[in-house]
Design goal:
A hairpin with a 2-residue loop joins strand 20 and strand 21 (406-421). The chain has one domain (32-421): Beta Barrel (Porin), CATH 2.40.160.10. The chain has an 18-stranded antiparallel β-barrel. A two-stranded antiparallel sheet has the order 9-10. The chain has helices spanning 2-16, 26-31, 177-180, and strands at residues 33-48, 57-71, 76-87, 98-101, 110-121, 127-135, 152-162, 165-175, 184-185, 188-189, 214-222, 227-235, 239-252, 255-268, 282-294, 297-306, 334-348, 351-363, 372-387, 390-403, 406-421. It is mainly beta. The chain is built from three helices and 21 strands. This is Major outer membrane protein. Residues 1-23 form the signal peptide. InterPro entries: Campylo_MOMP (IPR008439), Porin_dom_sf (IPR023614). Keywords: Signal.
Length: 422
């Protein structure tokens, strides 16, 4: 598989018409190229059981990612990432799934995005400097995701390790946040260049085209018993945010335990209409995640709470600065209380069955007359790892949405996913 991928790369370069003035024998050209990637297929099925008409929503989802790393010299490596992940006639730029609706559309072909193209310099001891188009490696974003959208930008990222501490600093002069972010309030995306000034939240002044600069600094301390981190990020003329976290894993009488705690705060720079008369909206989130595994049994208990003014603390719902379930998440929800519980058992060494529960209560908007919302999900999940690089899972359950204690939505939800990595 790797040889085929390498040969395909060489062929693509030749067809594209690149100069061959410095060409080298094929064997030399490909032996320093490292190839990795992933292939994911996902099928989703969602039905509103209370609807009077057909409300079925089914779709096929595909994402193929190919990473190529080529050694330039002893100190420099060139890295690129290609993602097949959007219908070929509607490029999205979010590096996520190609979602093909099975209800109303026929099969479509999908296109290719170049999401990473950067040079990594390691000529300084214990230091790496990445320059170019790359993933946004921060607690608020997801730089690489085999089965979801990715945040990318063009700039410089530097990491340097001194003893147990790693220091990070980055500057990006453009990003794909206008296309890839999950940040929203009541379904209105924070970064949307098509927003009108009359929109109830985040008028035109808060709409971004992805050209805003990002500056971030961070420190990670890997101590004997715990990993601590602290980060700060500023998005020009939009918001500034910070987060602190602690994570630890240990063994107690044969029981493997894990603890993950985090706090994040985000303050918008500009006034937001209709939000408790605040000139600046203050968002905050605190979460605690506990995990345990004893023999064939595993479990998880998680809790997240957000500030009464707002809970917008992440640019991707998969990021570390929020809490995500399957259909539920805490990001962008004000005055939220979110609980998760999971109990699983290993039926076989490579087959796990689990019961999953989630419940979140929050305000549907940030005004004084906010509606009370409650969402709940209960589902079973079966995970099968056929081999180290091939895994799949099946989920099936229910998702309910209550507004002011009046059940308005009752969904049955199902999913099948297969993932291959190489």
């Amino acid at each position: 598989m790797k040889k085929i991928a390498k040969l395909s790369l060489v062929a693509a370069v030749a067809v594209a018409g690149f100069s061959t003035a410095n060409a080298q024998p094929l064997e030399e050209a490909i032996k320093n190229v490292e190839v990795s990637g992933s292939v994911v297929y996902r099928y989703n099925d969602k039905n509103d059981s209370k609807a009077t008409t057909d409300s079925s929503d089914t779709n096929n989802n595909y994402k193929v990612a190919l990473n190529l790393a080529s050694k330039v010299n002893e100190d420099v490596k060139f890295n690129s990432r290609f993602v097949v992940g959007q219908p070929s006639n509607t490029g999205t730029g979010n590096a996520g799934f190609a979602t093909l609706d099975t209800n109303d559309n026929g099969d479509q072909n999908v296109g290719v995005e170049l999401t990473n193209a950067y040079f990594g310099y390691t000529g300084i001891a214990n230091t790496t400097v990445n320059v170019g188009k790359q993933g946004l490696t921060t607690p608020w974003t997801v730089a690489v995701d085999s089965d979801g959208n990715e945040q990318t930008g063009t700039g410089v990222l530097a990491l340097s390790t001194v003893g147990p501490v790693t220091l990070a600093a980055a500057y990006f002069n453009q990003t794909n946040l206008d296309k890839s972010t999950d940040a929203s309030h009541d379904g209105i995306k924070l970064f949307d260049s098509k927003r009108k000034a009359t929109d109830p939240l985040f008028g035109q002044d808060n709409a971004l085209s992805g050209s805003a600069d990002i500056v971030t600094v961070g420190a990670i301390a890997n101590l004997d018993f715990v990993t601590l981190d602290a980060w700060y990020l500023d998005l020009t003329d939009t918001f500034d945010t910070y987060t602190v976290g602690a994570k630890s894993d240990f063994d107690l009488s044969g029981v493997k335990l894990g603890v993950d705690a985090r706090y994040a705060s985000l303050t918008l720079d500009k006034p937001v209409a209709g939000l408790l008369n605040n000139a600046e909206e203050n968002n905050a989130m605190a979460k605690l995640v506990l995990t345990a595994k004893a023999g064939i049994v595993n479990g998880k208990l998680a809790y997240a709470m957000t500030d009464k003014d707002g809970g917008l603390t992440a640019l991707d719902n998969d990021a570390n600065t929020t809490l995500l379930g399957w259909n539920l998440n805490a990001n962008g929800k004000a005055d939220a209380d979110y609980w998760q519980a999971v109990v699983g058992v290993d039926i076989l060494s490579n087959l796990n069955l689990s019961a999953n529960y989630g419940n979140i209560e929050y305000k549907s908007n940030n005004t004084s007359a906010a509606d009370k919302m409650e969402e709940e999900e209960i589902y079973a999940q079966l995970v099968y790892k056929m081999s180290k690089n091939l895994s799949s899972y099946v989920r099936y359950g229910v998702h309910t949405v209550d507004k002011n204690n009046d059940e308005t939505k009752d969904f049955t939800v199902g999913r099948l996913q297969v993932e291959y990595t190489f």
